[in-house]
Amino acid sequence: MSTAAGQVPAIDIKDLHKYFGDNEVLKGIDFHVDDSQVVCVIGPSGSGKSTLLRCVNRLEEPTSGQIMVEGIDITDPETDLDQVRSRIGMVFQQFNLFPHMSVLQNLVIAQRHVKRRGKDEAVQVARRNLEKVGLADREGAYPAHLSGGQQQRVAIARALSMDPDMMLFDEPTSALDPELVGDVLEVMKDLASEGMTMMVVTHEMGFAREVGDKLVFMDGGVIVEEGDPAEVLANPQHRRTQSFLSKVL
């Protein structure tokens, strides 16, 4: 899906550079995600994928360049970051659930503190999203009593409970046992089919091919190749992309 004439991209990145000390991790990234688009970012470890994703909601501070989220420049020091972040759901490799809280409490707490929702409304929203990820029957369970795949689905439900306009996924299945990956990917597929804008750093090539609107291959802090996922995976043009895909497909 492409942006209609005059429509602002959901995420628009221009000449983004990121240094950690003397190490330049992102070397002038130009990149955009359109509204309702699913963009999958692939590449070897250390290529800058996760750093790029973390710059999009300023979990990492860009060294230079511009990041626009729904037309708002989040690299501008005047921008209210919390307000912009409230539109962006983030799901990490690790689930980051509060271990001393039940599933339901994990979903309610941020709604109460950040969204200022009353308890009844927050619980209603939480239950609706637990149902969406197939865990309505586990609201009273604690994270330690859930499988990794269930914990990740709770983390997705928690992000959705904040009513985001877009979702960022940082290798959401990489910490899971292989047999648990499918349930998480199914939830992500459902979100995509509902029109959620998504940027997904992933090693799951089947998901990228089936669900992605655009595939981006990164290496060494630059975007080497991007295009339609089926085309890039079947017929990569760049030698570095060919080498990488020959090892992972």
From TrEMBL:
Residue stretches making up the ABC transporter domain: 11-245
Subcellular location: Cell membrane
Membrane topology: Peripheral membrane protein
EC number(s) on file: 7.4.2.1
MF (Gene Ontology): ATP binding; ATP hydrolysis activity; ATPase-coupled polar amino acid-transporter activity
A cellular-component GO term for this protein: plasma membrane
Main location: membrane
Catalysed reactions listed for this entry: a polar amino acid(out) + ATP + H2O = a polar amino acid(in) + ADP + phosphate + H(+)
Key words, A-Z: Amino-acid transport, ATP-binding, Cell membrane, Membrane, Nucleotide-binding, Transport
Presence of keyword ATP-binding: yes
Entry keyword annotation includes Membrane: yes
Pfam assignment, any one: ABC_tran
Residues annotated as signal peptide: none
Entry's family note: Belongs to the ABC transporter superfamily.
Protein name: ABC-type polar-amino-acid transporter
Provenance organism: uncultured Nocardioides sp
